[in-house]
Design brief:
With 216 residues, this protein is of the alpha+beta class. It is 47% helix and 12% strand. It has two domains: 158 residues, no CATH class; 38 residues, no CATH class. It has a three-stranded antiparallel beta sheet.
């Protein structure tokens, strides 16, 4: 389960370490959105309330952990701690106000839920199950301006990004981008290796640390 209150406190503490014009306005803007409560995805990693905030913190932890790597130590030190906070915590700011709540019926094989259910017990190849109503999310982006590029556009309204921050946030999806963009992505990684670092941190968080309802 996600402890959203604890995550908000940690997020705001990290943001407070960034001494840059516009940060207070940016934080106030986020408080007026669903950033703290939105999921990180519709059905993949952290597709639950508070998932987006949890994911942002997970990416930060994975990125900072690279400081212990001889491959990344000098690169991350040169970029600076403030930039690491900005790149990790705001890389997915493009997702604010994009997720809509809904409900669906799905099978559950949980013995406790089956025992407590008053519904009809059924069987299939997975064993005994009952139907339960669960909350779902759908994506409804009213500002279809892309992904990484949209995050950069939003941030540019509030704070001045460094070139490294701009490239890293723009290209954080890495090779999840369309194949036609691989050439530009490769050049971005060569120009600013931090692009690769944030992409790796994003993958490490979503694929290794996170489940559907919380961290693994």
């Amino acid at each position: 389960m996600i402890d959203t209150k604890k995550n908000i406190e940690r997020f705001e503490e990290l943001v407070s370490t960034v001494k840059r014009d516009g940060m207070e306005r940016l934080l106030n803007m986020l408080k007026g959105t669903d950033f703290y409560t939105a999921p990180a995805s519709t059905k993949f990693h952290l597709s639950c309330e508070g998932g987006l905030l949890q994911h942002s913190l997970n990416v930060y932890d994975c990125l900072v952990a690279k400081k212990e790597s001889p491959v990344w130590k000098d690169i991350l030190s040169e970029v600076g701690d403030e930039s690491l906070v900005i790149m990790a915590l705001f890389h997915d700011i493009c997702k604010i106000n994009c997720y809509k709540k809904g409900f669906k019926n799905q099978k559950t094989y949980d013995p406790q839920k089956i025992a407590a259910s008053t519904g009809k017990k059924q069987f299939d190849e997975g064993g005994e199950f009952v139907w339960e109503t669960v909350q779902t999310y759908t994506m409804d982006d009213e500002m279809p301006l892309g992904h990484g590029e949209k995050s950069v556009m939003i941030l540019d309204k509030y704070i001045e990004l460094t070139k490294e921050e701009t490239y890293a946030i723009r290209w954080h999806m890495g090779f999840s981008e369309e194949k036609g963009l691989y050439g530009s992505l490769g050049k971005a990684m060569e120009k600013y290796p931090i692009v690769l670092a944030i992409h790796e941190a994003d993958l490490e968080a979503s694929k290794l640390l996170e489940g559907e309802d919380g961290n693994k």
